[in-house]
Amino acid sequence: xxxxxxFLTLLLFVxxxxxxxxxxxxxxxxxxxxxxxDTAETASWIPRLNLSTASGTPGATITLVGTGFPPDQLVxxxxxxxxxxxxxxxxxxxxTSDGLGVFDLTLTLPTLWPLDTTAVSSTQxxxxxxxxxxAVGNSASPAEASFVINYQDAFEILQDxxxxxxxxxxxxxxxxxxxxxxxxxxxxxxTPPLEPGNPRMNLLLVADLEQLDxxxxxxxxxxxxxxAADIALTAVEIGNTxxxxxxxxxxxxPALTWYFVEHAGRLIYFTYNDPxxxxxxxxxxxxxxxxxxxxxxxxxxxxxxxTxxxxxTxAPEVAAEATEVPELEPTVSVVERAERDEGPLExxxxxxxxxxxxxxTSATLDRLAAELRPEAETFTAVYSLLDLDDE
Length: 391
What we know:
- By secondary structure, the protein is α+β, with helices and mostly antiparallel strands.
- The protein has helices spanning about 5-25, 215-220, 280-285, 335-340, 340-355, 360-370, 375-385, and strands at about 50, 55, 60-65, 75-80, 90-95, 105-110, 125-130, 145-150, 155-160, 165-170, 175, 180, 185-190, 200-210, 235-240, 240-250, 255-265, 265-270, 290.
C-alpha cells in the first residue's frame, strides 16, 4: 500500500470518529422517570422552597410553595434547626408535586422548638424547613428555607382568682368561658377556633376537692369509672408546685399527659399540648403558679322564721247540699322530676367526656346521674348554654 492510500484511510477513520462523537449526547444529571432512570428522556431539577413569611409568633400558620421538583413525586418536609443533621430532623409533613414539579402546603408550626426543650427562649428560635423527594435519591437535591419564631411578648397570663393560680399561654390562643360539668368547671384553651370535639384543644378543670380527688378525676377521664386500679399517678413538680401526673388515652385515642394540683380545697387539673404535634409543652406547664384563692364558702343555713300563732276563725256555715270535691291532679314526685331533667344531665356528661375523647357507658351515666340529681337545675342551665335545645 502506497503512502497516498494510507493517508486516505487515516483521514476516513478520523471523519468517522468525529461523527460518532457528535451523535452521542453527554450524560445529564437529574434523570428520572417513573421511579427509574430513563435513558430515553432526561431532565434536570433545581428544587426551590418559598415561604409566605420568614418569621412569626409561636404556632404560626404559613404556606410553603415548592417549585422545580421532580414531577408527580412524594415530597417529605423535615423540620429542625440549622445545626441539625438531616437524619436528626423529623418528618413534619408531606405533599405531592404535580406534573410540573410544583406543590403548595399549609403548615402550623410548633409552639416551641425543639419539641423536648426544657426552657422557652427569651428572644427567638430559627427553624430550618427541608423538602426532599426520597424516590429520586440524589438526582434532586433537597430544598431549604428558614423561619424565625419570635418569643418576645409572645405569651400572656391566664389568671384564675377563684381557684388561685396563673398559667402562661401563647398570646394567639383563646380561652373559652367556664362551663359547669359533673367533673368541675371546664374551660378549653388552644388555637382558634375552639370547637367541641377538636382533639387539639387543651382542657382545664377546677373541682371541689371534697367531691373529686386526683384519682377519681383520672378514673372518670380514662374510662368513666371502674378502672381506678389501672390509674398510675406520679408525683412531680410543675414549676415549684407539687403535683401529680398520669397519661390518659390509648386504644386509638391520643395519649395525653394530665397534671393534677390540689390547692385551697380545690382540684385543678389540665392538659397542655402543642396543637400541631400533641407534644406536652413542659416549659409552659412549668409556668403554672399558685396564688391566693377565694375561700370556699358553705351554703348559708336558712334563718329561722317565727311561726305565727293560729287565730280562731268562725266555722263556716254548712251548706244545705254537699258540694262535689274536684279531683286533684297527681303531683310530680322527686324521682319523676329527676328523670325529667336527666336529658340535660346526660347531654352535659356526654359533652365533657366527648371533649376528653372518652366513651361513657350507660352504667356510668346512671351512677353519675344518681349522684348529681340534686344539681339538675344547674345542668339544665348548662343545657341552655350549649344551645342544644333543638337537638
